[in-house]
Amino acid sequence: MSRVLLFTGKGGVGKTTAAAATATLAARSGHKTLVVSTDTAHSLADTLGATAGAEPTEVAPGLHLHQVDTQKALERQWGDLRDYARGFFAELGLDEVTAEEITVLPGAEEVIALLELREQARSGRWDVIVIDCAPTAETLRLLALPEALDWHVNRLLPVGRRLLRTLSPLIRRVAQVSVPEDHVVGAGERLHRGLLEVRELLTGPDASVRLVLTPEAVVLAEARRTLTSLSLYGYRVDAVIANRVFPAEGADPWRQGWVEAQAGHLAEVEQSFAPLPVHTVPYLDAEPVGPAALARVAEAMYGESDPFAPPTVDPPLRITPEGELILALPFAEKGEVDLARKGDELIVNAGSYRRVLALPAALARRSVREAVLRDGLLRVRFQSGGPDD
Ligand SMILES: Nc1ncnc2c1ncn2[C@@H]1O[C@H](COP(=O)(O)OP(=O)(O)OP(=O)(O)O)[C@@H](O)[C@H]1O
Ligand SMILES: [Mg+2]
Fold first, then answer.
1. Cβ(6)–Cβ(209) under 8 Å?
2. Per-residue pLDDT tens digits for 304-361
3. For 209, which of 6, 106, 232, 346 could close a Cys bridge (C-beta 3.0–4.6 Å)?
């Protein structure tokens, strides 16, 4: 299995730089490394000082860059869905929807890039896969969508398919709108399965997320919310990277002001994100671009620690042998977390985020006895289930 490392954080804090530096170090340490970007701005290639090809291209010894061509991937993999959407919109009297417009849907590009990544992960070619993610983990949250849709797809689709087939001539006449044909429904199922597989890879035991921030109040507040929601959705965060830390030596009064303010925020980061390690990177005197500069960033960032060791942090969700469900929700406040039970599912709301958790068979039939949020852990206890209940 490849070691999968994801980098996320607020816009502009240094995600691409941290990802490129980590990938550079991985290759220099002898790991076969793939670095992937989910954005289309080509910043990753610029940062590495390289040109990306459509396929993984070796940009330094042992370091391969993959800039997914989302348009081509969409054509190849999801043409059926696109044709359906196009026809559907045309029948509604809307202008023809082009492939370009579909990829404008929020998050679509990133999701397509992640779907493509599955094949690379399966190939077994890579020791380390580094992913430069979109700001504040928007895409990673999007991957939780299939979990929520699972219920509908699993339970409704077989029936839905039958219904659609018998009803389609009728619907066609009445609604003047086409109903998806079998191959379209098939593509929908494939997409759904694909999303579940990507999520499994990214939340699996060999994957972890590194949260990049700069020591500033606004950035910090957002990083906290990102950590809560990543945890809610089951991603392990194994380190914080504090980038652009002003050096204290020889500071003039202007820089001295920044040094002091950052020191305060850094102390807060160390204390509130503990036990996560906080790796700091100084504000350099020039943009770190190209392999040599990136290798220096990685050295400053990780020091003596091994950034490619398997993650040692617990997965956010676990169920104890006694049947207690424990979900880590760091920084979540009591007032913003609530629970609901719907059939076999437990719906957890934390702030504006929601996760639909399918309960394992052992808990599915037992009702919730109590739920407590303490020290960043949500503990849910169920009625003891036995033959007499
Ligand atoms: N420690 C640093 N010292 C000096 N410049 C830096 C440092 N880290 C990043 N930069 C520069 O800051 C700019 C933004 O960094 P980067 O592109 O890595 O951010 P990002 O979080 O990926 O941004 P986006 O949200 O737009 O993807 C780049 O020009 C980069 O070279
Ligand atoms: Mg970037």
1. yes
2. 999 999 999 999 999 999 899 999 999 999 999 999 988 888 989 998 888 888 888 8
3. 6
Average model confidence (pLDDT) across the chain: 84
Q: Is any ligand 1 atom within 6 A of the Cβ of residue 30?
A: no
* Distance (Å) from CA 46 to ligand 2 centroid: 10
Q: pLDDT tens across 90-101, in order?
A: 665 555 555 555
How many CB atoms are closer than 10 A to CB 125?
A: 13
* DSSP secondary structure of 178-242: PPPPHHHHHHHHHHHHHHHHHHHHHHSTTEEEEEEE-SSHHHHHHHHHHHHHHHHTTPPEEEEEE
**Structural contact between residues 235 and 5, judged by C-beta atoms closer than 8 angstroms:** no
Lowest mean pLDDT among 5-19, 125-139, 304-318: 125-139
Dihedral sign for Cα 138, 192, 238, 378, please.
positive
pTM of the prediction? 0.86
- What tokens does 181 get? 């044909």
Nearest residue (by CA) to ligand 1, atom 19, is: 14
Cα 114 to ligand 2 centroid, rounded to whole Å? 16
- Prior bond to 169 cis, omega within 30? no
Residues 371/381, Cβ–Cβ less than 8 Å: yes
For the record, the structure tokens of 97 come out as: 């929807």
Element at 158 (helix H, strand E): helix 145-175
